[in-house]
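During the second year of the project, the team shifted from modelling isolated chains to modelling whole assemblies. The rationale, set out in the original proposal, was that interfaces cannot be judged from single-chain predictions alone. As a representative example for this report, we include one of the complexes processed in the last quarter. Its constituent sequences, exactly as entered into the pipeline, are reproduced here:
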Amino acid sequence: MSAVRKGPSLSLKAREAITGWLFVSPILTGFLIFFVGPLIAVFYYSTTEWNLLSQQSRFVGMANYVDALTRNETFWDVLVNSLVFAAGLVPLNMAMALGLALALSKSRPGAVFFRTVFFAPVITSAVAWAIIWTFLLQHESGAVNQGLSIFGIDGPNWLHEPDWAMVSVIFTRVLKTVGLNMILYIAALQSIPRDYDEAARIEGASNWEIFRRITWPLLAPTTLVIMVITVVGSLKVFDHIYLMTGGGPQNGTMVLAFYIYEQGFKFFNTGYAAALAVVLFALILLLTIVQMLLKAARK
Amino acid sequence: MNYRTQQKITRICWIVGLCALAIPFVFPFLWMLSGALKGQADVFASSSLVPAKVHWSNFSDVFAYQPFARQYFNSLYIAIVVTVSTLFISSMAGYALARLRFGGSAFILLVLVSALMMPEEVTIIPNFFLMKELGLMNSHMPLILLPLFGSQGVMATFLMRQYFLALPKELEEAGRMDGLTRFGVFFKIALPLSKPALSAVSIITFLFSWNLFLEPLVFVNDIELFTLPLALANFTDTYGLPLWHLQLAATALAVIPMLIVYVLAQRQIVESFAMSGVKG
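Output from the structure prediction step:
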């Protein structure tokens, strides 16, 4: 033991510090190289312009940002699309998740079966889910429109009309991810002590009153977490767009994450794409800060 | 109407409503199977869910169209490598950040946490040039390194830290009394106690890697090096039109084993995700 060790022995405190640094060094090293470094670099790239012919980049200052904000009309479309996507997806996703959680949180026979069903798309790859739905949403022969025709409804060409394409992508994305939020809500509901419920019922409170005055306020921290996760998730949606619409038709579903990919890796506008990535970074950072403030305000 | 019948009616409404809601969750999988078993000509021609004639040959054609077995293996081994490495790295870092006192630990934690939600799209462009510089383009290394050290690895670290914080300290202190070093306490006491967190990290990391799409798309070119999601997106004829029967057969081959594992281990899988959300 240390007391009988020969030679200069380090103090316990120093040894603990060395062990600590040793333990965090693998992830810290990798994190600096593959995350922090690139994060700094993306700001630098956003001030350059890459020339495909000469294979060189030159400094252009804020030109890429000015380009995006003033000259490039697509940028504003993309920003609006991203907001429309989030505004459509987040409330629908959360309302559905909460509804399902309320229906399935108590252990009735069948509850586990339905939970399994609603969660299944979460573990299915987004690529597979998007492929299947692209198949189902084909214009004349797709299963969705075939189904609608039974009721005499002439379904639209879902993925080839700008507005319907946006609706389709939002809807299929909600189906893909709602199970996760449902599970988070169920976990939160099950942690609410039963006595609250029972006491209120003895007092003669209706189901709605119990929900409004007890359940909903107690769920607030969970709702906040879910909201932030879902908003961030909606801003980074890529697979669905790539596979179902390719950003089209007429840029109708061109959202920020997909636009970055297209500008960066299809058209090789590296500088411009980097500036877009900075915009995405700023949006997510803003959301993170808002979440922290809300959390702090609650305490 | 007495209380009994009212209860019964509520219950029936409950089941009918949930069944209706379940349609868009269940039918896609059934149509995937149905399309996978139809011939190229009648994928759309017949509107019935049950194929007129079952084309088992679709499945073998998938392997003839591209090196699908190889691609399947790629996805599997990459996911395993990412998962095992993440377990090592994140549990060590998580333990240090939860239990060991050392200068800078609070700052490290803050930096890591602020990266928790950053999507890979933000850093993908510089990472592209970095991988080029390192000579790792068109290889599987980026698909291993980026999840390991990006927000996914950070999430795993954070999850492990939260779990270690909740463990009672006494057992570890007893281990120290018995003369174990910090390494010994970590490997012999803390790690065996944290099996639930380790399995949660494994499940989430495996699925994350298995479903990764943007990184393979950006970093991998050779069809031999494709992962499953890339392979699935790659079934088109010479005109660029989708070969639905093959694409759906391949999708079924990729999805069904996962669904079987999910149904068998659904409790554990669902709990893992609940844990990640609650902690994150």
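The mean pLDDT of chain B is 90. Chain B has 15 helices and no strands.
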